[in-house]
Amino acid sequence: VHLVESGGGLVQTGDSLRLSCVEGGRTFGNYDMGWFRQAPGKEREFVTSINWNGTITDYADSVKGRFTISRDGAKNTVFLHMNNLKPEDTAVYYCAARALSVSRRRDDYAYWGQGTQVTVAS
């Protein structure tokens, strides 16, 4: 499983961004996917997850109502749509994959991308 994130950048408070994570193999449909983020000096934290067929999603309270996760099986891609961004959303965002049920636990995910930086200026 090879994951590659893209779409990060520098934005202003209130702006939107869409992150993408492409799975380079042929097993995308077998995996539940998650997005995590890590701000400087902080632990990597759960943001959102989606199950293998897109029917179950979960969100951290801090992003609920602002972020939306989705997946496109034909493109082997999971998306993170981020609206109304805040300075506290500044972090490196990572996508991750696991073969069992969705989870909020970082240690439950076996596969990780390299991360993409999101910076929200105040």
Q: How would you describe this protein?
A:
The chain has strands at 3-6, 9-12, 17-23, 32-38, 45-50, 57-59, 67-72, 77-82, 91-98, 111-112, 116-121. It is an all-beta fold and 122 residues long. It contains no helices and eleven strands. The relative contact order is 0.32.
- What structural category do the secondary elements indicate? mainly beta
Task: Give the overall silhouette.
Answer: globular
Low-confidence stretches: none
Q: What value does the average pLDDT take? A: 95
DSSP helix fraction: under 10%
Q: Tell me the β content.
A: over 45%
Tell me the span between the first and last alpha carbons.
Answer: 37 Å
Order of helices and strands: EEEEEEEEEEE
Number of helices: 0
Strands, count: 11
The major beta sheet can be summarized as: 7 strands, mixed
Radius of gyration: 13 Å
